[in-house]
C-alpha cells in the first residue's frame, strides 16, 4: 500500500488501560489515523474492518496476552507490523516472540515519547518497504510472465514464418524449374533452326528457309511473352503494381480491342463479335492493364477454339458493376482443372488447336489485375462445348 500526501497510515493501539490509549492517540492523531481497542477481541474486529499497517499491543492484558494476540494477527493479517509494550519482567517472552517473527520491535515501560515516535516511524517505513518490495516482486513476476508469453508467441510466429519461407522456397524452386524448362525449349528450337540455316543455307529451299525463320520467330515470341509475363507477375507480387485509372467509355474500349484481334481471328477462320445493349458506359479503369486482360482472354478463346467458330464478348451492367463475358465454342476445360485455372504456372491439359503454347501465367496476371480494380473473375466450362470467362468491376 503506497499512500499519497493526503492519506495517513492506520495505527491500532491495544491496551486495557484507557489512559494509555488516550495518551498514545493524543500524541499521534495528527500524524496517523489512530484506532484503539481495550482487548484482543475488539482489536481483531477493528483489524477486520480497517486496513491497519502497524499495531501496538500491551503484553499484559486480561484473557489473552499481547504475544498471543499478535500471534493471531500474524496468521490473519500477516502484512501488519507488530509492536509490543512490555515491562522488564516479560522481556524474555517478548524476545522469544521477536525471534519467531511474531513481533517487529518491543517498547519498554515507561517509554519515552520521542523514542516511541522514532520506533513508530521506523515501523511504518519498514511496512512501506515491505509493501513496495512485494508490489515490485509481483510486477516483476507479471512482467516475466508477459515476457515469457511474448517469447512463446514470437517463437511460434517465427516457426510459422520459417515454415512459410521453406514452403515459399520450395515453391520458388519449382517455379524456377518450370520457367527454365519453358524457356529452354523454345530457345533450343530457335537455336537449332538458326544453326541449320547457317550451316546449310545454300542447300535449303527458299520455302523451307521461310518456314525455319517463321519457327525461330514464333519460338522467340513465346520466350519473350513468358519473360514479360514473369516480370508482370513479379511486379504485382512485389507490390510495385500501380493502376493508372481514367474515366473513359468502356464500350468503345472493348470495340477497339476487338478490332486489334480480328486479324488474328481471321487467320484461324474465327469470328469475333461484341454483344451489348449498351451504346456507351463510362467507368474508371486502367486501359493498358484492362487491355492485357481482354487480349489474354480473347487470345485464349482463339487458341483453344477450332476454325469457323465464334467468340462473343458480351458486356452488361449489373448491380453497379460492368460485367464482361468472353464466350467461346472451344474444347472446354475439364472440371477437375477449373479450381486451379487462375494459379501461377498452371496450364490446362487442353492443347491449342494449332499447337499454340501457354506460359501458365496469363490467367494469374488477369486475376490480379481484376482484383486490383476491386473486381472478380470466374469461369464456367463444359468439355466439348466451350468456356465462359466472366469478370466484373465497379462502374
Question: What is the count of DSSP helices, taking H or I runs of 4+ residues?
Answer: 9
Oligomeric state as shown: single chain
Task: Fill in the CATH topology of the largest domain.
Answer: Heat Shock Protein 90
Which overall shape is indicated by the principal axes computed on the Cα atoms?
Answer: rod-shaped
What is the CATH superfamily of the largest domain? Histidine kinase-like ATPase, C-terminal domain
The secondary-structure class comes to alpha/beta
Poorly predicted runs are none
How would you portray this structure in words?
- With 395 residues, the chain is an alpha/beta fold.
- The protein has three domains: 10-111, Rossmann fold (3-Layer(aba) Sandwich); 178-237, Helix Hairpins (Orthogonal Bundle), CATH 1.10.287; 246-394, 2-Layer Sandwich (Heat Shock Protein 90).
- Helices cover 52% and strands 18% of the residues.
- The chain is built from nine helices and twelve strands.
- Strands 2-1-3-4-5 form a five-stranded parallel beta sheet, sandwiched between helices.
- β11 (376-382) and β12 form a beta hairpin.
- α5 runs antiparallel to α6 and α6 runs parallel beside α9.
- The longest helix is centred in the middle third of the chain and has 88 residues, at 113-200.
- The chain is rod-shaped.
- The mean pLDDT is 84.
Main attributes of the structure:
395 residues; Rossmann fold; Heat Shock Protein 90; 3 domains; five-stranded mixed β-sheet; 9 helices; 12 strands; rod-shaped; phosphoprotein; HATPase_dom; EC 2.7.13.3; HisK_dim/P_dom; kinase
Ordered list of secondary-structure elements with their pairings:
Blueprint: E1 10-14, H1 18-28, E2 33-37, H2 40-49, E3 54-58, H3 66-76, E4 81-86, H4 91-99, E5 105-108, H5 113-200, H6 206-237, E6 246-249, H7 250-267, E7 271-275, E8 282-285, H8 287-303, E9 310-318, E10 321-327, H9 362-372, E11 376-382, E12 386-394
Parallel strand pairs: 1-2, 1-3, 3-4, 4-5, 7-9
Antiparallel strand pairs: 6-8, 9-10, 10-12, 11-12
Modified residues (4-aspartylphosphate): 58
Coiled coil: 144-171
GO molecular function, one term: kinase activity
Amino acid at each position: 500500500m503506497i499512500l499519497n500526501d493526503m492519506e495517513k497510515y492506520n495505527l491500532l493501539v491495544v491496551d486495557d488501560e484507557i489512559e494509555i490509549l488516550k495518551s498514545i492517540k493524543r500524541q499521534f492523531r495528527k500524524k496517523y489515523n489512530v484506532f484503539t481497542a481495550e482487548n484482543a477481541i475488539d482489536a481483531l474486529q477493528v483489524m477486520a474492518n480497517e486496513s491497519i499497517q502497524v499495531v501496538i499491543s500491551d503484553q499484559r492484558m486480561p484473557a489473552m496476552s499481547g504475544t498471543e494476540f499478535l500471534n493471531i494477527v500474524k496468521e490473519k493479517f500477516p502484512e501488519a507490523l507488530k509492536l509490543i509494550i512490555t515491562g522488564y519482567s516479560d522481556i524474555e517472552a517478548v524476545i522469544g516472540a521477536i525471534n519467531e517473527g511474531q513481533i517487529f520491535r518491543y517498547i519498554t515501560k515507561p517509554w519515552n515519547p520521542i523514542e516511541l515516535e522514532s520506533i513508530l516511524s521506523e515501523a511504518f517505513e519498514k511496512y512501506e518497504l515491505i509493501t513496495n518490495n512485494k508490489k515490485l516482486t509481483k510486477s516483476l513476476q507479471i512482467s516475466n510472465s508477459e515476457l515469457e508469453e511474448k517469447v512463446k508467441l514470437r517463437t511460434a510466429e517465427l516457426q510459422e514464418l520459417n515454415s512459410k519461407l521453406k514452403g515459399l522456397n520450395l515453391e520458388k524452386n519449382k517455379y524456377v524449374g518450370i520457367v527454365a524448362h519453358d524457356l529452354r525449349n523454345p530457345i533450343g528450337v530457335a537455336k537449332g533452326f538458326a544453326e541449320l540455316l547457317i550451316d546449310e543455307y545454300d542447300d535449303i529451299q527458299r520455302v523451307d528457309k521461310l518456314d525455319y525463320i517463321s519457327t525461330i520467330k514464333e519460338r522467340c515470341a513465346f520466350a519473350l511473352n513468358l519473360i514479360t509475363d514473369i516480370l508482370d507477375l513479379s511486379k504485382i507480387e512485389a507490390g510495385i503494381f500501380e493502376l493508372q485509372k481514367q474515366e473513359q467509355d468502356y464500350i468503345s474500349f472493348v470495340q477497339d480491342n476487338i478490332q486489334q484481334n480480328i486479324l488474328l481471328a481471321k487467320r484461324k477462320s474465327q469470328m469475333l463479335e461484341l454483344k451489348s445493349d449498351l451504346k456507351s458506359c463510362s467507368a474508371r479503369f486502367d486501359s493498358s492493364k484492362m487491355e492485357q486482360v481482354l487480349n489474354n482472354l480473347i487470345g485464349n478463346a482463339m487458341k483453344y477454339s477450332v476454325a469457323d467458330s465464334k467468340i462473343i464478348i458480351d458486356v452488361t451492367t449489373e448491380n453497379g458493376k460492368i460485367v464482361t463475358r468472353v464466350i467461346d465454342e472451344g474444347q472446354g476445360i475439364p472440371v477437375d482443372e477449373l479450381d486451379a485455372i487462375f494459379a501461377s504456372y498452371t496450364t490446362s491439359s487442353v492443347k491449342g488447336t494449332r499447337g499454340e503454347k501457354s506460359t501458365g501465367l496469363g490467367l494469374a496476371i488477369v486475376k490480379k489485375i481484376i482484383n486490383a480494380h476491386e473486381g472478380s473473375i470466374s469461369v464456367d466450362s463444359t468439355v466439348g462445348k466451350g468456356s465462359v470467362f466472366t469478370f466484373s468491376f465497379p462502374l
